Amino acid sequence: MYKKIINYLKSNFPRSLKTYYLIRFVFRAIYQKEPRAHLLWILKRGDSKSYKKFNLNSNSIFFDVGGYEGEYTDRITKFYDCWSYVFEPHPYYYEELKQRFKNNKKVQIYNYGLGGKTETLYLTDDDQSSKVSNQKTDLKILVKNIEEVITDLNIETIDLLKLNIEGSEYELIERLIETDYIKKVEKLKIQFHDNINDAKSRRRDIRNKLSKTHSEIWSYYFIWEYWKKIS
Question: Is the pTM here over 0.90, yes or no?
């Protein structure tokens, strides 16, 4: 019933519905931690400003894990002119990325995801929030062990590792920590997601282990956080 009402409002009163969502979002930010962090991120213009403070250069190596349409890689490469490795398992966005960066030889596009182990999985096709799953769908994808990929690409140091992979970040970071490959990563920009079981406790455990090699520079709860390797 609720969905029918929302769909009706979307069709007939789109502006009113947008205003309602905005008011609800601000109200939730008053008493809920995650919406509050999201609001602070928006107010501080995190999407348009945070990438300018990573102190990269033209020789730096950037891993964009979950490249989507390439907007973030585009910003990073234009600002720093660094070497970029973009990992996107969704076939449609992979083709978009190839087209978008076809004239930039410093951007390499890979049609697979990164995770804690190499395996064939499936992707739920939910546009911006596509999720890796064991359950069969029409989108069969390859996910590779990040440790093996770093070795195969002969990467000694990742100057910035950006993760936005809809819940798969937990296993990936755990693998990096377990193998000590986390020490190859100078900076991490992570978006943790709460769409898995025990997300809060698992995030807390990762952060505790990560703090042994990296320092938290800033954190917006389940929105984005930035860690830098301890010198």
Answer: no
Four-point Cα dihedral 97, 102, 107, 110, nearest 10:
50
> Using the 8-state DSSP alphabet, how is residue 82 labeled?
-
Q: Which helix (H) or strand (E) holds 148?
A: helix 146-152
Pair 106, 77: CB distance under 8 Å: yes
230 backbone dihedrals φ, ψ, rounded to 5°: -75, 130
Planar angle of CA 217, 222, 225, nearest 5 degrees: 15
- Is 15's pLDDT higher than 90? no
DSSP code string of 7-53:
HHHHHH-HHHHHHHHHHHHHHHHHH-HHHHHHHHHHHTTHHHHGGGG
- What is the enclosing helix (H) or strand (E) of 78? helix 71-80
Residues of the chain with pLDDT > 90, as a percent, come to 71
Please, which pLDDT band fits residue 38 given cuts at 50, 70 and 90?
confident
Residue 89 has pLDDT above 70, yes or no: yes
- Which backbone phi and psi does 3 adopt, to 5 degrees? -65, -35
Q: What pLDDT does residue 77 have?
A: 98
Residue 113: name the closest of 44, 56, 61, 65 by CA: 65
